[in-house]
Amino acid sequence: MDFDTIPKTLDRFRPPPNLTDYRQAYRDFDWQQARIKDQGGGINIAFEAVDRHVQEEQGAQPALVWLGKQGERRVYSYGQLQGLSNRFANLLTDLGVARGDAVFSLCGRTPPLYAALLGSLKAGNVFCPLFSAFGPEPIRSRMEIGDARVLVSSARLYHKKVAPWRSELPHLRQVLLYDCQGDCPAGCLDLDLALSEASEIFTNCPTQAEDPALLHFTSGTTGPPKGALHVHEAVIHHGYSAWCALDLHPGDVYWCTADPGWVTGTSYGVIAPLCNRVTLVVDEAEFDPERWYRILADERVNVWYTAPTAIRMLMKVGDELVARFDLGALRFMASVGEPLNPEAVVWGQRVFGMPFHDNWWQTETGGIMLANFAAEPVKPGSMGQPLPGIRAGIVQVDEQGQLTELTTPGQVGELALRLGWPSMFRGYLHEEARYRNCFKGNWYLSGDLAYRDQDGYYWFVGRSKELIKSAGHLIGPFEVESVLLEHPAVAEAGVIGIPDEVAGEVVKAFVALKPGYEPDDELLKSLLAHARKRLGPAVAPREITIKDNLPKTRSGKIMRRLLRARELGLPPGDISTLESDEGDLHEK
C-alpha cells in the first residue's frame, strides 16, 4: 500500500460524501452559506441542536443512545431531549440563576450532563464542563477563575472532590446533585427530584450571536489554566464543520468517544452532531477494546470520531479481536487530539477497509480548522487541508514583532489562521493581555509549528510552547508543579512531557527536596500519591525523579526546556540564562 497517499473510493458506501469537490467548495465558500437564525431572530446553540428538529417534525428520531456501565441502554428522542433540557432550564430560572451566570458540570457521561448543557444554553447561562477524572485542585482552580455560580454533579463526585472545600467558594450558590438515592447532602439540591417536578415547556432566552455560551479551560505553561470563552455564534461553525469534515448526514449513527469535559466532547460529542440531526452514541464506561468493538457493531455506528491514543491502544490489542465483529455499517473514521502517526492511518485501511482521517483544531478555535476530507486522498501523518471558510498559513514573527507569511512549500513556521470564522474564542477570562498576545494583525497564532506541502496539506512539527499533550489532554506544567510544591518535602519542581508509545506524551516531574528529607522509595510513593489525589490520574505525573537541584535561570525560573533536553538526550540550546553550569544533574 502507498504509504504517502491513500485514495478514496466514493461508491463503496452510500450516501456519497457531503463535500465532493473540495477545491470548488473552498474557492466559492462564503460564511453566509452557513448562517442560521432561530425563531426569535437571534441565535441559540441549544435551539439549533435540538428544538429546530422538533419544530421540523423530527422529534421522534433518536437523538441519544446512552450505554451504562452495567449494561443499561436508554434511547432519548429529540423530543425527549427537548423536554429534559427544558426542565433543566426551568429549574435554573426557578432557582433565580441569572442570565450569564456560569453553570459548571462535574459529571460522568450520564444523561443529566446533556440535559444540563442544553438547558443552561436555553436559559442564557454560560456552561463550563469539567473532566470528571480531575482531582480536587484542578476543579477548584477552574471554578474560582470561572466564578462558578452553579455546579451540577453526581453525589459521589461531589463528596469525593468538592465537599471538603466548597465553603471556600462563596460565590457558588447552587449545587445540583443527581444519584443522591434519597440522601442529598445539606446545602445541595436533589437534581433528579427537582427535574421530575419541573415543566417541560420553556421559552428559550433570546440570545444573540455574541452572547457568551461556553467556557472551556486550556492549561497554561507558566500560569493558571486559561478560560477560553465562546459565544452562541460558534454553532454556525460547529454544524458546518461536522457536515464537511466528519461527513455527517441526517439519520447517521455517530460515536465521538471524547468526554464532554473536554472541548471535543462538547463541540463534536454533543452540539455539532445534534445540529446535523444524527443519533449520538454515549458510552458511560471507560476504554475497553472488546466493549468498543461491540458498540460499533451493535449500534451500527456509521461515523466514529476518536483519539490517536485510543487507536494506538486498539492496535496493541491486535487484529484478531476486531475480526470477530461486523462493522459493515461504519462509513467514516476520524481522529483528533494529537498528531496521528502514519502507521495508525494505514492500520485503519488494512483492518477496517478505510483510513482514519486526522484533523486539527484547538480549544481557542472552537472547531475543526484542518481536516482530511472524505472525498479527498488521505496523506498519512498529515493534519489535512483548511476547511472552506478557513484561511490558514505558515508564518514567522521576528524579534521586532513583524509577521511574514511563508509561502514556499516545506518551510517550517507557526501555524496561523486568518480571523473571521464564527467559533473563534472571544477572550480568556480576566486575562485580556494574554488574549491579545494570541493575535498579530489579522492572524491568530496557534503556537504550533508546522509546514505546508506542495498539495496544500499541513503537517505538524511540534509545539512552540511547553504544554504537554497526554492521551489528547492538554496539561500545563505550572499546574502540576504547583501541587507538587504543596508537599512538605518539595523545595522545587519542574514538569515536562516525555514521549510515550500509547499516550503520545506522559507527565514526568523532577523535584528537589527540602533539607531533612531523604530520597527513598517511601518518599517517592508519598509524592506520587499526593499528586494523584490532588490532580487525578489524567494529570498527575507518571514518574517523579528526585534531584539535588534543578536547572534555573538567573531570575530563578525552572528551565523545563533544559530538563527535557537532558532527559531525552537532545541539544541543550541556548543556556546563556542558566544560573550556573551544572553539568549532568545527579539523580537519586
From TrEMBL:
BP terms from Gene Ontology: acetyl-CoA biosynthetic process
AMP-dependent synthetase/ligase domain segment(s): 55-429
GO cellular component, as recorded: cytosol
Molecular-function GO term, any one: ATP binding
Entry annotated with the keyword 4Fe-4S: no
Signal peptide (residue range): none
PROSITE patterns, sorted: AMP_BINDING
Highest taxon of the lineage: Bacteria
Enzyme Commission number, as recorded: 6.2.1.1
Residue ranges occupied by any AMP-binding enzyme C-terminal domain in the UniProt entry: 479-557
Matches recorded under Pfam families: AMP-binding (PF00501), AMP-binding_C (PF13193)
Keywords for the protein's UniProt record, in alphabetical order: Acetylation, ATP-binding, Ligase, Nucleotide-binding
Name of the protein described by the UniProt record: acetate--CoA ligase
